[in-house]
Write a structure and sequence with these properties.
With about 230 residues, the chain is of the alpha/beta class. It has ten helices and eight strands. Helix 3 links the parallel strand 2 and strand 3. Bound molecules: pyridoxal-5'-phosphate (PLP).
């Protein structure tokens, strides 16, 4: 199947209100342009350098979403153009994004990443900490970020009951935070969950943004080809 066929197949299964972030990490400009020509405008990248290079060389109406772990000293490179940062995993990085947003003269949409998987991970807030996290008074003072929702990744497993449980935890967390801290605030509306192997379960659990790479572009190859 071609990139265009894969893309159309996925789009035909997504209900209205669910947006597709085409995860283009490791893909070259030609591959990205195949999806672009078909109308795809949201793309996701997880490395700052790669993202900046692609932003410079590809059409300017692409909305670039950053989905990887972000280091404070690199925020300045993407702040002028990034459409959304899905992977905010500390208050420190949120404050840095706010500062760089101010410097760039824009408000940057951000999702807070929660750790819902069974696996150990260094990244993401713990769901138990959500109340304490969102009640911090200084969050409201960050006027160059837009806190737009939550993001999470399920355990990498064949056990769909487990994955279903984890997505439902993120959905319930979102609902609770929305009614408690963002009532009447339409900016807080996104639940970024679901990848190639589990996006249908994520959609069934209320995802609004699915991040799909290999089902569109094929399996990733991280090795440099031998010449
Ligand atoms: C790579 C990546 C994806 C896409 O993964 P696929 O399995 O290729 O669909 C989604 N989210 C994040 C955070 C990623 O790093």
């Amino acid at each position: 199947m071609s990139i265009v066929e894969n893309l159309n197949k996925i789009h035909s299964t997504l209900p209205a209100g669910v947006q597709l972030v085409a995860v283009s990490k490791t893909r070259n400009d030609e591959e990205i342009m195949e999806a672009y020509t078909e109308g795809q405008r949201l793309f996701g990248e997880n490395k700052v350098q790669e993202l900046v290079r692609k932003w410079e060389s590809l059409p300017k109406d692409i909305e670039w979403h950053f989905i990887g772990h972000l280091q404070s000293n690199k925020v300045k490179f993407i702040a002028p153009f990034v459409a959304m940062i899905h992977s905010v995993d500390s208050i420190k990085i949120l404050k840095t994004i706010n500062e760089e947003g101010r410097r760039a003269g824009r408000r940057i949409p951000c999702l807070l990443q929660f750790h819902i998987a069974r696996e150990e991970s260094k990244f993401g807030f713990s769901p138990e900490d959500a109340d304490q996290l969102f009640s911090q008074a200084d969050l409201a003072e960050l006027d160059h970020v837009i806190i737009s929702g939550v993001m999470g990744m399920a355990t990498f497993t064949e056990d769909s009951a487990q994955v279903n449980l984890e997505f439902s935890i993120l959905y319930k967390l979102f609902q609770k935070v929305k009614t408690t801290f963002f009532a009447g605030n339409d900016n807080f509306r996104e639940i970024s969950m679901g990848m190639s192997d589990d996006y249908q379960l994520a959609v069934a659990n209320g995802s609004t943004l699915v991040r799909i790479g290999s089902t569109i572009f094929g399996e990733r190859c991280y090795l440099k080809p031998e010449s």
